[in-house]
Amino acid sequence: MLWDLVEPGSELWADALRDLRHDFYHLPGYVRLGVGLYEGGRPRAFIARDAEGLFLLPLILRPIEIGTGDASLFDAISPYGYPSPIFAVRAGCEEVAFLDRALDALVDCLMKARVVSVFCRLHPLLTLPHEPLVRLGVVVEHGPTVYCNLHQSLEEQWRKTRETIRRQIRRVQSQGYVAEEDTEWRHYDAFQEIYAQTMRRVAASEWYFFDRHHFAELRSTLGESVHLITVRLREQIVCAGLFAETCGIVQYHLAGTRDGFENSDVSKLLIHYARQWAKERRNDVLHLGGGVGAAHDSLLHFKSGFSKLRSTFHTWRLIVDEKAYCELVAQNRAQAAVIDESANGFFPEYRIDYPKKVCRAEKQEASALPE
């Protein structure tokens, strides 16, 4: 098996995407863009090929700066979204056997690159067998995501939309709200303002507050693959979303509603229009995603009103170098003065930012003092 760890400008990456069904998360430009969210990160793709198949996994390599140990160690993380491993095998070839070989090659490659661990988000729609992943690491199930089958007729999609949402869409349409694609991107600034308002309103973590440079690069990177859909009342943009279109998959990427209109149900009109728009463009599926952190929350309930179809979001955690991993965990705990602290599922554990608190030894010492 031939394999390599390549940079975004590599022809190997471009050639592999021509042969594999993929999403925009797999594009080299998008992976490069994701580096801006991880200080010191390096965009890469692992590619493996033999006579039976082709495998690609986009990654961001991050330097590990913990303790006083080896400063040349890295770990790998997926870019934001669902940049799952993607693969294809020739007719008559066994998928699991090919994936076993590709993943063994991945481990060899990462060991040579001094990568300690990998945290990978799996794509809910571009699925692959989990057995080869479990053989080497751990697959964690997080929760459901919602998608719409665009091969269904518009009438069937409407019929399967929750009745309350149908009433709300009809009401906002009667009130004069209009949804449309902004093909000239005249309202991109308005979208960014609305998105920021929404993140503040829902008290999102700082990580989700993308700056103007990120949005400019996102549009430049994705080009004709990304589309801006808006909802306006007369001339005012009150709701907007970015939808990415790749290989028949449309992703509901980022969206928001203007302050003062959050209870107006205009976001439901946005998705209703996007579903029709995506079908008219002969796509296969509109993926709406899940709840915050894949939780069963109000966001998931909202999205579930448009379709009963579900997929499942998983992550894959791989420890490449067990010895280095354990040493880094120990160093991180020592720096934070914690003992036997639970990781609560956080991976990699050595990147936990432990809160400043009195450690167990200090508590024991304090308890021995006279009152």
H-E order? EHHEEEEHEHEHHEHHEEEHEHEHH
Mean pLDDT: 91
Q: Structural class per helix/strand content?
A: alpha+beta
End-to-end Cα distance, whole Å, is: 70 Å
CATH architecture label name of the largest domain: 3-Layer(aba) Sandwich
Name of the CATH superfamily of the largest domain: Gcn5-related N-acetyltransferase (GNAT)
Poorly predicted residue ranges: 357-371
What kind of sheet is the major sheet? 13 strands, mixed
Describe the oligomeric state of these chains in a short phrase: single chain
CATH topology of the largest domain: Aminopeptidase
Radius of gyration: 23 Å
Number of helices: 12
What's the CATH class label of the largest domain? Alpha Beta
Helical percent range?
A: 25-40%
Beta-strand share of residues: 25-35%
Which term fits the overall shape?
globular
Domains (count):
2
Strands, total number: 13
Q: Summarize this, please?
A:
With 371 residues, the protein is of the alpha+beta class. The protein is built from twelve helices and 13 strands. The longest helix has 18 residues, at 95-112.
Descriptors:
371 residues; alpha+beta; Aminopeptidase; 2 domains; 13-stranded mixed sheet; 13 strands; disordered C terminus
Q: What does this protein structure show overall?
A:
The chain is α+β, with helices and mostly antiparallel strands and 371 residues long. The protein has twelve helices and 13 strands.
Task: Present the secondary structure layout.
Elements: E1 2-6, H1 11-19, H2 28-34, E2 42-49, E3 53-63, E4 74-77, E5 86-89, H3 95-112, E6 115-121, H4 131-136, E7 138-149, H5 154-159, H6 163-174, E8 177-181, H7 188-201, H8 212-222, E9 226-233, E10 236-246, E11 249-257, H9 266-280, E12 285-290, H10 298-304, E13 310-319, H11 322-336, H12 360-367
